[in-house]
Design brief:
The complex is a heterodimer of chains A (260) and B (206). By secondary structure, chain A is α/β, with parallel strands linked by helices. Chain A folds into 2 domains: 93 residues, Elongation Factor Tu (Ef-tu), domain 3 (Beta Barrel); 135 residues, Nucleotide-binding domain of ferredoxin-NADP reductase (FNR) module (Rossmann fold), CATH 3.40.50.80. Chain A has 6 helices and 11 strands. In chain A, strands 4-3-6-1-2-5 form a 6-stranded antiparallel sheet. A 5-stranded parallel sheet of chain A has the order 9-8-7-10-11, sandwiched between helices. Chain B has 206 residues and is mainly β. Chain B has a domain of 133 residues: Oxidoreductase, molybdopterin-binding domain (Sulfite Oxidase, Chain A, domain 2, Alpha-Beta Complex), CATH 3.90.420. At the A-B interface, strand 3, strand 4, strand 6, helix 6 and strand 11 of A face loops of B.
Amino acid sequence: MNPVVNAPRIAWRVATVADVIPETPRTRTLVLDVAEWPGHRAGQHVDVRLTAEDGYQSERSYSIASAPEDNQLALTIERLKDGEVSPYLTEELRAGDQIELRGPIGGYFVWDVSLEGPLFLVAGGSGIVPLMAMLRHRDSALSNDDVPARHRVPARLLYSSRRWDEVIYRDELTRLAEKDETLEVTHTLTREQPSDWTGFKRRIDRVMLEEMTWPPSEHPNVFVCGPTPLVETVAATMVDLGHKPERVKTERFGPTGGAV
Amino acid sequence: MALISRGFRGRKRSADVAERLPPGQYETRDFPVLSAGPTPRISLATWDFSLQGADGKRVRWTWDEFNALPHSTVTTDIHCVTKWSKFGTAWEGISIDTLLSEGAAKGITPSPYVMARSDGGYTTNVPLADLMGAKAWVAFGFNGAPLAPEHGGPARLLVPHLYFWKSAKWVRELRFMENDSAGFWESLGYHNYGDPWREQRYAGDE
C-alpha cells in the first residue's frame, strides 16, 4: 500500500532564454535561466507553455538535456514538420525572450551515479536528449581523475541517427568518450553514411545489442528513448536477451510510424 | 496573467475541436505509445482476469470465459497527460458494471477504492464510483481489431474520462480497497485522480 501523495503544486515559472545553440539542421538547444528552479534529476522533463497575444495557449513536454549540476537549464528541441510549438521554439525564440515552464516532471525514467551497475543507453534521434542529461550528470558527478569511481558505473551509448549531420551533441559525445575510458559511444547511421564510415549502418537489431550491451549477470541499468518502433524493438530484445523488464526503462515519442 | 510569448500565434482551432479539448491538450490523429518499460508478451492460454474483494475473496475468468461475457462498444475521446488527445476512438470490451454484477453474484463485495494491476507490475488507483455507470471497461478491441500489444493488448482498462495513464495497459486484476492507495505514476509525482478537464496532471494540481 502506497500512501496517496500530498505535494505542493508544481508552479509555472518564467524562463529567460540565455542562448540558442544550433545542434543539427532540425534541432536547437535553448539554454534557460529559470527563476527559483528547484533542481532536477537526469531523465526528467518539463512542460512548456506558450501564450499568444489573444490569450490562446499551447503546452508541450520536453526532456531536460542539462545535468542537475549545471547552472542553467537546457532543452533540446526538434522542429517537427507541421508542429505548432516546436517551429516557434526552434526558429522564432532568441536570447532575452521569455517562456513559461513547470517541472521537473517524471520520477521513473531517471538515473544518477548512486545507482549500482553499468549504464546502457540506447537512443534514436532526439531520444538522445534525456540520455545526454544522464551522461552529463555522470561526467559532472564523477571526478575525471577518480577512475575507480567511473569504473563502478561504466556507461555505453548506442545511438541511431539517419545521417551524420543529424547526430545531436556529436562533438560533445566524442569529447566525453575520448577523455573517459569508461564511456563508449557507438553510432549507427541508418540512411546515409560519410564515405569513410566504418561503423554500423543499419537499424538497431538483436546482433548489435548483443554485441554492445553487458550480459544480464552484470545487471546493467538500461534506458531506451526514441521513436516507438525503435523502443519496442530494443526493449523486447533486451528482455529476450535475459534482462529483467524492470531494468529496462523506456520513453517513447513521435508518431507510431516514426523510424530512425 | 500568463506571460505573452513574443510572436507566438499558435494554430487556431475550430470551435468544435476547441470544445472537445481539455485545457493544455492538443489533438493528434496518431495513436502514440507511452509505456514505462518493455511490452509484456502474454499468452491467451494463461491469461486470466480477476476481481478481488478487500476481504481477499476472488473471482477469476479465463480468456474464453471473459470473452463470453456480454460485450459493449464505446466510441470516446481519450486524453494523455503528455498532452495529446485523440478523438472518437472505438473500443470493444466488457463494462466494469458487468464485471461488478458478475462478481456480486459470486460473493465479491465492492469497496470504495480500486487498484488495477497489470502484467509487468504496473498499478493505478481509481475510485469505484469512476468505474461504475457505463464509464469504464476492460477493452480488448480497438477499431474493429484485437487491441495491439503496445497499446495494452490483449486487454486494458479503459477509463476515458480520466487521463489515460489510469487506463492501465495489460490489466489482469481489479482489487477493491477500503482505503485509497497510490498506484505507479500516482507515487511518482502524478495526480491521484487525474481529471483532464481540471488539468489534474501532477500531484498538487487542484
